[in-house]
Amino acid sequence: MKRTDYIVIPAYQPDIILVDIVDRITSTTNFSVVVVNDGSDKSCDSIFNAIECKCKVLSHSSNQGKGEALKTAFKYLLNIANDDSVIALMDADGQHKLSDVCNLIKEVKSGDNGLYLGSREFTGKVPLHNKLGNKITMGLFRLITNIDISDTQTGLRAFRGKLLDELIKIDGSRYEYEMNMLLKFAEKKIPIREMTIETVYIDGNKSSHFNPLLDSIRIYREILKFLASYVTGFVVDYLIYALLIFMGFGLTVSNVFARFVSATVNFLLNRNFVFKSKNSFFKSLIKYTALAVFILISDTALLMLFTNILGINYFAAKLIVEPIMFVFNWTIQKLFVFGKTIKPIKPTKIRRSR
Predict the structure, then answer these.
(1) Residues near 153 by beta carbon (within 8 Å), at least 6 away in sequence
(2) CA-CA to 286 of 20 to 30 Å: which in 34, 53, 105, 180?
(3) pLDDT in tens, 304-313
(4) Cα(93)–Cα(64) distance, rounded to whole angstroms?
(5) Helices 251-269 and 281-304, interaxial angle, to 10°?
(6) Cα torsion 214, 219, 220, 224: sign
(7) Residues 320, 323: Cα–Cα separation, whole Å
(8) Domain count of the chain?
(9) Which residues lie across from 143 on neighbouring strands?
(10) 178 and 40 in one domain?
């Protein structure tokens, strides 16, 4: 029988587990396997030599990251897979059970043209940084898209071949690519489905090449850019506010003028640097102005509450109020001012086959 469905495995510095994974897939299923050697050391040559007779091995001359490894496989499959082919992604470290991969592929075959995730339950002995990291990215994804996904970092995913073109165009070369994939599918309203899979961590997940600092920065880059823009606007706002207070102007006048200047700076930074909006400049400006007026009224009201009623001094009150406005400001700008509105879509939860 011709193999028309594929399992893609990006691999960097793999061990003998990869050989076992490929052996089990090719001996017990009808799926073709594509492994991408993402610039592994020469010491790993024996691993790739052992599997190249059973699967297609694509190689990078140097390490380019998981995102680029996946896109290399997608470009290869673009020439051999058809629109109805099912393509599954799994990791090379043995933390995805083949039974879960097979069940996910079955769901794609019987479902629609969406993205299917093998979502972990995070039960049992799960490293704290993995559990915490998923909670943070899950919260940020919900904040950005208004969509609940229980495991945004899962590497087990599946989809039909007709989505290959779309996936190749998504930005990201390393671990941030997986988050960008979810963001792009949410933006384009491509259905996202979740099937619960078993959580497996081998030796505390020490084989992972995820860099907690650098890769987290890449994953959270969008909100970090907004934070940088917000902090820049806040510094401008606070300096002007403090200067006017020192010069003897009242709280309301000082806050209104400072907010006007900082809002102008924030608008230009967010439109051109953070969200890179392609929407009409004037439409975005009108929406932003309406938001800025609302923020100004809320901000001033809170300042008056803290200073006049609670007795907090003007400078401390400003430092308390600004973080309160941050999340609201981010959400509105992302969804309504500079981006396309994303209607809440609750991903389908698929019961795992036993």
Answers:
(1) 133, 134, 137, 178, 179
(2) 180
(3) 898 988 889 8
(4) 18
(5) 150
(6) positive
(7) 6
(8) 2
(9) none
(10) yes
